[in-house]
Input
Amino acid sequence: MVAAGPAIAAPSAGAAVVINEVYGGGGNSGAPYNRDFIELVNRSSNAVSLAGWSVQYASASGTSWSNKVNLTGTLAPGATYVVGGATGSTGAALPRVDAEGTINLSASAGKVALVDSTTALSGCAGKSDPNPCSALSSVADFVGFGSANDWAGSAAAAAGSNTTSLARKGTQNTPDNSLDFLAGAPTPGAGTSTGPDPEPEAQQRTIAEIQGTGATSPLVGQTVTTRGVITAAYPAGGFRGFFLQTEGTGGARDLAAASDGVFVFQPGGALDADAVVGNYVEVTGKVSEFGGLTEVTAAAADITDAGDDFDAVTPATNAWPGTSAEREAIEGMLYQPSGPFTVSNTYSTNQYGEVGLAAGTKPLIQSTEVAAPRSAEALAVEADNARRAVTLDDGASTNFLANSFSTGVCGTRPTPCLTNGDLTPAYVSQSKPVRVGAAVTFTKSVVVDYRFDLWRFQPTATVVGPDNAASPAEFENTRTAAPDAGDINQLGTSDIKVASFNVLNYFTTLGVENATCQPYTDRAGDGVTVRTGCDQRGAWDAADFQRQQSKIVSAINALGADVVGLMEIENSAALGERTDEALASLVTALNAKAGAGTWAYVPSSTELPPASEQDVITSAIIYKPASVMRVDQSRALGRQSADGQAFGNAREPIAQVFKQKYGKGDKFLFVVNHFKSKGSAGPFPGDEDTGDGQGSSVTSRILQAQALRDWVPTALEATSTKAVVMAGDYNSYTMEDPLDVLYKAGYTDVGSTFDNDSWSYSFSGLSGSLDHILVNADALKMATGADHWNINSGESVALEYSRWNYHGTDFHQPDPYRSSDHDPVVLGLKAFVK
Output
């Protein structure tokens, strides 16, 4: 046997052991094999020891290399070595596996590194970075495929698929991924194999010795025997294992000590008969790190009953630790959360059955909601978020949106062959809703876990929807049937109420009507909403539209507002339809429920630019003629909509003067705005995302704020009006630069003034307000109070019309909740200036 020498810097034509084949489609629809795999080959004439090496994986644009498998054994000249990855339900078993692993590769794009150590790669980035991962001296070989941002040579290899792997062309090693690898049928273990060296005799170790006091076990790669009490077991749902805790441990823990809990992984699938909560067992297996979680991998034969003579375990009782180092001290242990916790994220509940939490009485906050970008205060908010964050999981790794479709295999039309869509994610409910901002009460203990780059609370048994019987927590129901009258009338009873409402791409021109439109589909393969290919952005067909409209109508009618500014409504003129056709349709639907004549709409202004210069979504104003009356014509800032101008990439501000119906009250100019989104960069310098928390297109939004600031006085003068109320989706959190332009011009944000402990939007588990009502000094004298009516942003997206028939449970109800992704803001006004 010849020991492996140091790896040659970066992938080299002279490398002895190289990556021979990469396959990430295992178990997916149509896959020939039920597991992902990575195959190595020894191209040299000498045997090479793989001890101390690892195979590591990162997503196409990812920077985390924690998904890895440590290698053992000696590879003979010309021999291949198969590393098994994640398992699915479709396809045959791999002919052989030389190293067990659970790396979950993308079928189409990703990065694989062969590394001459077991330390996860870090401090490196993509090919455009001065320090790409593919150039590290520890990397013996590197394969980037598909849209990967790093590769060996001149370009990445081709994309893979469910049915194709990326395999080396014979013995070719230029090394250039684009030249050396071809897509073709997977051939795992096609060459000869030299399996790993015989396992050394297991050493008796305590769980604390296995865990160690750092982030990584000091015994990685070693075979150990240990004993403990089973505290949680997951016979289904993908975890394939159980948690083990040292007998007699628990209570208040020393957060500088090693943990007394560990996860035991059973790669064979079904759990051993002794893997029952409360049993005392002996386990023999190999120690590894799975994405940061210390675990022992043990076959069923290596898990045995250790008898009845043991001390029971109790939950750890510490307050939730604020650092990862302290959390390591209770990783894998039973834990009883104490003190207040608050729901902070429900978006991924729909997909993974998990709920983001925040220790304390408020959700995690967008730093630029409460502090200026890049300020010390903003950095303090981000640090506080990190200290307080934890995720309540469901005890499973199920992806509830993992639908796969086939034609001609499962039916004559696209129908699901293998799907989790027939299941229901945990923690989604209409009767017991889980909402951002709701208080959480833990009625059962959990296990502290680290998976998929997040610290988690795992239930001791898998939580299964829709009944969620095993849930360790109860959630406060914070739903309200209407906006808070107390907040709106803080300074006296309002005479008029105005509101801002984003109607989530309300389009009466449907996707099914345009042959170029492509849909997002439900679990039956039927379209639900428009995905791409056309100008439409809303519902796919009439049934989807009715579900969308029923929720929007319910929400607007329950607002109690007299004037409502709408965003994201179809710009019918830009689609070649009758001007205001979609707006008129919405008003008709509102009146069908509220009564004839309850609502009317403000016609599109003649000051708007030609339809060709307008976006396919627009803003609009509706009002109650019995409460308020229009004064003068509708207005618009329509002179800056060409390319390179302020509103060339946003919706033009529109406006209308109102006053109380038949009253002698003061007029006010009501302006509706919808600034450029944060998601993509506009054409101006500074529009790229700089990482300061404001997202992309900051310059665009600043220019739009400046144009709005300069235009409003002209509209006030033209209508002899003093008070102005500006509502809308500014795509800016409260302390960001675009809004600062308006603050400096004398405008006040009534949402943060009157309702500063509530927000209108939730993104990536962080709460903040993108929707604002700003008033000048004259309108502020009329203001009585304001409220964010939290009916949308905090609710699970599973309730949205766009997720209809995604799961085995139908969550649709024609109510206000999750009628949009933004919450409405309501402002009360006195009819007279004080």
In short: The longest strand covers residues 223-234. The radius of gyration is 30 Å.
